Amino acid sequence: MVTTRDRIIVATNELFRRYGYNGTSLSQISEAAEATTGSIYHFFPGGKEALGVAVIDTTGAVYRELFESIAAEHPDPVDAFENFFDSAADVLEESDFVDPCPIGTIAREVANTSEPLRRAAERAFSSWIASAENYLINSDIDPDAADDLATMFVATVEGGFVLSRTLRCTDPLRAIALHVVAAVSAAPRTTHATLAE
Amino acid sequence: MVTTRDRIIVATNELFRRYGYNGTSLSQISEAAEATTGSIYHFFPGGKEALGVAVIDTTGAVYRELFESIAAEHPDPVDAFENFFDSAADVLEESDFVDPCPIGTIAREVANTSEPLRRAAERAFSSWIASAENYLINSDIDPDAADDLATMFVATVEGGFVLSRTLRCTDPLRAIALHVVAAVSAAPRTTHATLAE
DNA sequence: GTCTATAATTTGATAGAC
DNA sequence: GTCTATCAAATTATAGAC
């Protein structure tokens, strides 16, 4: 069942992807969500800022789960990261280069003006890094290397989105994918004790 | 001689770094630049958008020149990239995590609403990639590898800024630097014909 | 080139009926 | 929970004197 609250969050997410946080007005949200400002303030008494936090938390979890579902289908991390970047490039192109995710944009807009929003973005980024790190360790990448690798992965996703979206071309995203994959390939593996020892 | 036009551009750049494009008002700019709105419109008849384009073009050139001056001092690309990321991390920390550069933020805010601003950001990114590629080729990196490497460099800078600024910690930037440096080290070199042949 | 004054619109947010 | 009406403040931009 789609509640009014859900409709507001989904519509706001779509608007933030296109216009960012400061570029989206409550009247736009009201219209797109088919909910009056009274309704918006009923569900989000904290106003636009509280709504923004809810959008970031929701979208952050969706993207973490997307990564984890791709990871679950690809035991080899090289395959998983290749697949993730390929999918991201396809989605970007099909959407006519609308940002796939509003979190990075909002993070940059409000990092110096809203602690609640900044901390929501921090939660999202940290959860992605932790998820990627966990997957890498379970795929026998050395734990000491996994953290840096996961951090670099999230950074390149963010950087790739900005470049590809601004240049309106998926080449940057695909060039970056090659290097992330190379870094994963080159990473030291966990050495397991064998039965023969 | 510092002209009024210069003052407006510098002040706007500082405000955009902190609050983004949509988060900065003309009244803030007027106050920070010590110039009335009449003056702002005198120098930028196209209003806020035209001023934004001027800011992006100016800052884009400044950062390209910064990279080129670091490159000129370090013949070995590994040293150059290491130095660049180290400096960036230091600057970010010293400024209490204010964005060092407004271009990526503006690019994400307006990519779907202002073609003049989007194209200005595209010019800046492309000039950085071209500059890094040119330097890599002159440092005997294989030209086929140099383009992808330069693209990845710019993407990781952008991604590293978002992560480190949002997490208020330079670790991401430093983790990323390690991987960029590793990618440069692993890149194929140009094989030169020698006199002995 | 710089100034003040102001137009026209939109912003985020609230009050109170139903 | 949803609605309409409305507030005060801020927004970009312009006009015209100096």
Give an overview in words.
Two copies of one chain form a homodimer. Chain A has one domain: Tetracycline Repressor, domain 2, CATH 1.10.357.10. The model of chain A has no long low-confidence stretch (mean pLDDT 96). Chain A is elongated and about 65 Å long. With 197 residues, chain A is mostly helical. Helix content of chain A is 76%, strand content 0%. The first copy, chain A, has nine helices and no strands. The interface between A and B is large, with 49 and 49 residues. Chain A binds a DNA duplex (18 and 18 nucleotides) through helix 3.
**CATH fold-level assignment of chain A:** Tetracycline Repressor, domain 2
Report strand % of chain A.
under 5%
Number of helical regions of chain A? 9
Structural class of chain A: mainly alpha
Please mark out the parts of chain A with pLDDT under 50 across 5 or more consecutive residues, or reply none.
Answer: none
CATH homologous superfamily assignment of chain A:
Tetracycline Repressor, domain 2
Q: What is the overall silhouette of chain A?
A: elongated
Q: Under the CATH scheme, which architecture of chain A would be assigned?
A: Orthogonal Bundle
The number of distinct structural domains of chain A comes to: 1
Oligomeric assembly:
homodimer
The pair of chains with the biggest contact is: A-B, 49 and 49 residues
Q: For this structure, what is the CATH class of chain A?
A: Mainly Alpha
On the 0-100 scale, what is the average pLDDT of chain A? 96
Distance between the termini of chain A: 57 Å
Radius of gyration of chain A (Å): 19 Å
Q: Describe the sheet with the most strands of chain A.
A: none
Residues in helices of chain A, as a percent range: over 70%
Number of strands of chain A: 0
SSE ordering of chain A: HHHHHHHHH
